[in-house]
Amino acid sequence: MSDLEPRPSPHLLGGLGAVAPRPALELLPGKTVTLGERMQVRRLLPTLGRRMVGAWAFVDHYGPDDIAGTDGMQVIPHPHTGLQTVSWLLEGSVHHRDSLGSDVSFAPGELALMTAGHGISHSEQSPVDHPRLLQGAQLWVALPDGSRDVAPAFEHHATLPGFEVDGVTATVLMGSLGGATSPGTAYSPLVGVDLALAAGADVEIPLEPGFEHAVLASSGSSVVEGAPVEHGSMLYLGTGRSTLRLSAQAPSRLLLLGGEPFEEQIVMWWNFVGRAGDEVAGFREQWEAGERFGHVEGFEDGERTPAPPMPPVPLKPRGRER
User: Fold this and answer.
1) Is 230 annotated as ligand-binding?
2) Which terminus of the chain is less hemmed in, N or C, by CB atoms within 10 Å?
3) For 193-233, how does the pLDDT look when each residue is reduced to its tens digit (9 = 90+)?
């Protein structure tokens, strides 16, 4: 998924200055962003005061949207560098195509994982024949410096591991939890888990205390460590937790995200992750010149997302140090 704001703000991410050195309960304010012609999403990361959770650098949550009689999601080819995209659906279906030749439709419960690395372009669209409802999350993972220039790749995992305990069904998208390990390729220590809570569930799940964590209420409402988390909101949990207490009165879904605090300082602007402003500006120039990012089949020449203008101030990675 692309950041389609006409004048995207540069985000200076990373460093340990913003990492809570202890458990926290911090409700993150999201904002509504228009994606494509009409689709609206809730952007939870980056947000004011909280830019990353581990290596997770971008979280959009959307739906449930009734797309009957519409073309649904329509995000035409756009580029990425230096990151991975993690696509997770609760309802609906999405058709992914990219410059590697990948041509895959995925559904709820399936992981679509794209590693941009050196550079890739892709599109995301609702199939012509699509379900009435669309709901899910689009997430980006910043690649560490030693891996940010890897060859691009796409993975589609139709089945994922997980476990059930006391009214909670866990599906592990990335990393490991509760003895289950995702087949998705990860380049830094992190975790991403879908947690489906049955009505009346009240449970503790294990966490890695060296990670920082957050939970997104992707469907319904839940209570996390005594704090209510309403649909579409995210709760930052800090570090130092070995367990997490969850409960729900009605069926609900949470998306648990976590990872080792990301120590590197990075620049994230539009759809690029780099280490310096000049580098990001170079990525933009290459996209506009038709270089580096390849071509997505199935689109007419020139049918792609134009890069917005660079901001008037230099982009600098100025992550705060602790």
Assistant:
1) no
2) C
3) 999 999 999 999 999 999 999 999 999 999 999 999 999 99
